[in-house]
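Input/output pair, single chain:
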Amino acid sequence: MNENIQNLLHREHLTLASIQKRALAFLIDEILLSFLLVIAMSDTFSNAKTMQDIIIVTNSYLFEYLLMKIVYQTFFVMQYGATLGKLAVKIRVIEIATLANPSFVVSLNRAIFRIISEMLFYLGFLWGVMNPTRQTWHDKTAKTLVVNA
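Output:
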């Protein structure tokens, strides 16, 4: 682990969130956002007659879904230091430099790179599993850590 980060965590009595907690928070957020999308598109889905129609409808709303994920991640991480999933498992995101909730720019950066990581077969998340500070690509680019709340 980076010695500066290790010293910072020790000095501030912070502990890194486990991979299991982060994965559970991710799952909660994905289920919540998917549920919201289905509700928002319920009229469109009800008109779909075949599986192919459902796939076409889903694909036609991909941009809106990605935008919704970016707005969700940016707002909650900036405002509360955590998404609803992270709040549920009692973890939060902090900026390494300030130890506070990430700013708007940092939260937006983190949200965008999170989407990029998802599009690249979740490689950025895998990076976090193998990284001693558990920083994913979106944590690295935003200079953030996920710690226990």
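Residues 124 and 137 are 5 Å apart (CA to CA). The two ends are 20 Å apart (CA to CA).
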